[in-house]
Design a protein that fits this description.
13 strands, 4-stranded mixed sheet, 7-stranded antiparallel sheet, alpha+beta
């Protein structure tokens, strides 16, 4: 019996030693924690700084069409009623594309150029104006788009059209478009930055500006020299002019009571893995990643 117990204890001790030896084999373990895959973003926000002269006393800031950088909801670039020949406006749009380099496109489409009424003086200069016609029957029977003249250019952020922002002597075209609203705003599609423009993609750390001016009448370009005083508030268009002027004398009564409306769309598209991107003819109103 004693010999049996000694044998059992010996067997148990050997088994325990074997188990202990098994746990002491050489080993190593490496752990990677916090692995993450997250999509980037393209976020385009826009602000607008607007000036208007409807008194003949020079441009003044217009709060109703001025706002800080934001996603567009109910903001409008134009909201001017009771226009008279000689009225002049100037705005500078700023584009901020955060986080990633991007291509940027813009579309402008007129939604109405409408004869809302036919006053006696209007009928005298517009034989097609019929006071008996429903003003909503034809939204493109007006004359205001033909009498409102525009210019859009690449600005440096001071709301003033300057000598170095003309197309003279510069490989890069600074003037985007110029002419009556009926020609330059109806179905305009601009490649601000794409693979064909030679500019861009945009830098997330940089702001880009588009200047625009409109005139109810003949728009004349009077680009000014930069006098190194900077832009607003010390040296904006209310101080030294906008570099454009407006002559309303050639306008007759055909545009009286007419209404002009339109939509402006900007689109930002990633440039990475998209080096041959070209702004197409119809851009959707989205920020696209």
């Amino acid at each position: 019996m004693r010999r049996f117990l000694i044998g059992a204890l010996t067997t148990g001790a050997v088994a325990a030693a074997a188990i202990f030896a098994t746990g002491a084999f050489f080993s190593d373990e490496e752990t990677s924690t916090g692995n993450l895959l997250q999509a980037g973003e393209i976020d385009l926000v826009i602000d607008n700084h607007s000036y208007v002269d409807q008194t003949g006393n020079g441009l003044v800031e217009n709060p109703g069409t001025t706002w800080r950088a934001t996603d567009l909801t109910n903001q409008v670039f134009f909201n001017f009623t009771d226009l008279k020949p000689g009225d002049l406006g100037e705005d500078t749009i700023s584009l901020h594309v955060s986080s990633n380099p991007a291509w940027v496109c813009a579309n402008i489409d007129l939604t109405a150029n409408d004869d809302r009424d036919c006053s006696e003086p209007e009928v005298g200069d517009d034989a097609n104006c019929d006071p008996n016609v429903d003003p909503d029957a034809d939204l493109f029977d007006g004359d205001l788009a033909q009498a409102l003249n525009f210019i859009f250019w690449i600005d440096d952020g001071d709301n003033v059209f300057e000598i170095d922002e003309t197309n003279e002597g510069d490989v890069t075209e600074k003037i985007l478009t110029q002419g009556p609203a009926s020609g330059v705003l109806n179905g305009a599609h601009w490649s601000l930055f794409d693979s064909q423009t030679g500019t861009g993609p945009t830098d997330p750390d940089q702001v880009y500006w588009i200047g625009k001016a409109w005139c109810f009448g003949n728009l004349t370009l009077d680009p000014v020299d930069q006098d190194d005083l900077g832009g607003q508030p010390n040296n904006g268009p209310d101080v030294r002019g906008a570099g454009v002027s407006c002559d309303g004398e050639p306008v007759n009564n055909a545009a009286q009571t007419d209404l002009l409306t339109g939509d402006i769309t900007f689109r930002a598209v990633q440039s990475r893995h998209n080096s041959t991107f070209v702004c197409d003819e119809r851009a959707e109103p989205i920020d696209q990643i």
